[in-house]
Design brief:
elongated; Rossmann fold; Arc Repressor Mutant, subunit A
Length: 331
């Protein structure tokens, strides 16, 4: 896979004539012009949507290729730590747990999570971060005040209270038709804002690939969640790992890659079982040697659903793995 310069995101020179007009007219005049259309005003500004252009101090440095942004919520500071957590809409149970855990770590360390709020990995990570008081960023592909997909509306309103919503196009009277270029431009904004892009599960033919491509173009760090079993995470992670992107399997490794301090290591070795719940400790101690699920079920006296959920969580965290013969062993 070869990453090429994207042709759908104009650089600053391509925006020159537009920027010159905005600069000549001035941002306040642009707002005044929009105010002359009452329908537009009624559709947009009651939602507290602001318009900012590139020469304003509140305009994010990372987005100077765009002359105008339409935003709702708090401003984006140039010092903000921002991470994109992206992936498939059709995630596995492991992918869901992983997205939740990653977003929890990022929120704990004051990262702002950015995505398009599409279903699956992106929305799961955003929702979890929002519930924990995180300040997220959402980039929408449509016109200002339009929430796409429609199912994102409620969560977007919650995010706007502490985070930022972004649109690239002005408000229109009618709902505009969304083209591929709309999504590509939104993905370009996500990649531009992110200091690091974290991929959980995805296929090559997806919007996720577009974000990765933009990020590679911009020289952003791309971290790929990998796990031993194949066929459960889409073909994009495997392809990216083959191309030399950095993979991680457990969360301590992710935190190391992000340069975050961890308390899970002491003298270069993992701490004792004290950090685990009682039931997790019970399972891990039984797995001193490989064991099938049927024996674990018998020895732990758990019901099958409880045990399977616990095993998935331990596997996602990198503490256990499945090996040949249907056996499970501790890492």
């Amino acid at each position: 896979m070869v990453f090429k310069k994207s042709d759908h995101l104009p650089d600053l020179s391509q925006w020159k004539s537009v920027i010159d007009k905005i600069n000549k007219q001035g941002c306040q005049q642009l707002k005044t012009a929009l105010d002359k259309f009452p329908d537009i005003k009624n559709l947009s500004f009651p939602q507290n949507i602001n318009i900012i252009c590139y020469q304003q101090s509140c305009f994010p440095e990372k987005l100077k290729s765009f002359p105008v942004l339409f935003t709702r919520g708090k401003s984006i500071k140039n010092t903000d730590k921002i991470a994109a957590v992206i992936g498939t809409r059709n995630c596995t149970a492991q992918g869901r747990l992983t997205a939740n855990k990653i977003s929890s770590i990022l929120t704990d360390f004051k990262f702002r999570i950015v995505s398009d709020l599409s279903e699956g990995i992106a929305r799961i990570s955003q929702q979890n971060a929002c519930q924990q008081g995180g300040s997220n960023i959402v980039v929408f592909p449509g016109s200002a005040g339009e929430y796409f997909p429609g199912s994102s509306f409620s969560l977007a309103n919650l995010i706007a209270d502490t985070g930022t919503l972004i649109w690239l196009w002005p408000p229109f009277r009618l709902k505009i038709k969304l083209y591929k270029s709309n999504f590509q431009s939104a993905n370009a904004v996500i990649a531009s804002l992110a200091d690091v892009i974290i991929l959980v599960e995805a296929s090559m033919k997806s919007g996720t690939y577009s974000v990765i491509k933009e990020g590679a173009d911009l020289g952003k760090d791309i971290l790929v969640w990998s796990k031993p079993r194949k066929g459960h995470q889409g073909d994009l992670p495997a392809e990216l790992l083959n191309q030399g992107c950095t993979g991680f399997y457990d969360y301590v490794e992710l935190m190391d890659l992000l340069g975050l301090p961890t308390q899970d290591k002491k003298n270069g070795k993992e701490n004792s079982f004290s950090k685990f719940t009682a039931k997790q400790q019970q399972v891990l101690k039984l797995l001193d040697e490989p064991m099938p699920i049927s024996i674990l079920l018998e020895k732990t006296n758990m019901n099958i659903n409880e045990l399977l959920n616990l095993l998935i969580e331990l596997e996602v965290n990198g503490h256990i793995q499945r090996i040949e013969g249907g056996m499970i062993q501790r890492n």
